[in-house]
Sequence to fold (582 residues):
Amino acid sequence: MRQLGQIIAGFDWSPFWISLKTGIVATVVCFFLGLWAARMVLKAGPRLRAVADSILTLPMILAPTVAGFFLLLLFSLRRPVGAFLYNELNIKVVQTWLGCIIAASVISFPLMYRNARAAFEQVDPNLIYAARTLGMKESRIFWRVVLPSAGPGVASGTVLTFARALGEFGATSMLAGNIAGKTGTISQKIANVIKDGDYVTAGIWVGIMMVIAFIILVLFNLASGGGRHRHSRW
Amino acid sequence: MSVYVDIRKKAGSFTLDVKLEAGRETLSLLGNSGCGKSMTLRCIAGIERPDEGIIRINDRTVFDSEKHIDCRPQKRGVGYLFQNYALFPNMTLLQNVMVGAERSGTLTRAQRRELAMRQLAGLKLEGLENSYPSQLSGGQQQRAALARILVSQPEILLLDEPFSALDAALRWETEQLVRAAIADFPGTAILVTHDRDEVYRLCDRLAVYRHGCIDTLGEKWELFADPRTANTARLTGCKNLSRARCEGDRIVAEDWGLSFPLLREGPWTWVGIRAHRFLPGRTEDGFSFPYRITNDIEDTFSRILQIQNADSPDSALIRWETDKETAAALPETGWVHFPGKELLLLTD
Fold:
């Protein structure tokens, strides 16, 4: 018990804040990119749509370390893109918080994209046609008619994206590494302390993660309309 | 004020191939579902793109496949009334109608609001402006959709089965408001429907569709009196149709095992008799035959008798609709006649 008290007194909360900040920024990035991608894919012809959809969904299917491998290939300082970013623009991705965000965004993007796409597909096309014949501009139709009608699906996609980004481990550890106070997220912290046999610290973080996950699931259910159905079916 | 359409479009089970012109009038497109009448409206509105052809609205070319003109639906000046109303569910009635008022782009918010309120009141929706579509009846929703269109001041009105989702009482009430709105409307209105009574009440002219093409086109009274084809006869409500062939000065109705004097020469392959044209008794002009009643169905205010040519037991049933008093006095077998000019002479 005294041991637990000591641990909490000297507790390093930085993984929590790093994970939270990464999750929020990645969610914002994915929100807009996902909506945009979903809209573009639905506009495309059937063949292009099949290919584009597969590519955009790939990060969800692949092991995160595979995505991490490709990200390293792209952003490593010894590779053209990474070298260009570092030398010309002074942007470093590998072993930085930016790496955390990029890894989390790439891995959680398909959740946003797929949910947004499914939600858009549910919107009655007559609403869009009606808006067009009434003279509404396409961009206004999207923000005023399509998005509100697709609201619950988009909201649940956002929540899932945040959850996935918050807990990202594989790609993050490869691209951003585990630098305490800089890129050390909760998931990496747990893996790290377990390696040293520190089950108490790991347990605390696992507890925190579970509380967050539970809150997210409740939010998800509320967002996807679970709380709005007054009539029970069974 | 006119619409000119001459388009072709491959669409799944049929090919749309339509040529139409309408002035300042109400034109009705009548046909079975999936025959291309809604597709025609959607092409005019710019929702669907024809494979080739020309569409002109008030002498302005909005589509021309050869000149690569394809005007966006926003710029076509079309008011489209959808079967399922297509009101924006996240907006109140007032907000929905105010969207319609945005088209001109020159009005202030207060002016748009004023315009929308007046239009809502005109369609008996005052007091409902802050309701959401889901809180309203189907009739109210369709009126709101009409208000939204009228406030956008379209050049033409396209009505795509506007009453078919409504129950009978609301249907009548909504139809009266739409009829009044069409009467006040200065441009062309095109109504798509499969209800011949709606056509007769609302329209001046009628185009009957068949597998993506126009079967017949004419004044409504003219087409109801002489439908010209079996398809048009069926769609204008003729219940009795029989394949036919001409034999000298007589026409033989093969399915009924009957023959009648031929009053008008022509390449007839079908004949038809409307169900309410039959009268009991025998006449000397040749337009009568012996009947036997095989079924007697009581309808709300009439009786539907299914009769058969008594001399030919295998012949097709003929439907005879009459008032209950007349039907009650009819013997099981006897003679029935009809005015000779009511025998519809038809082609395929």
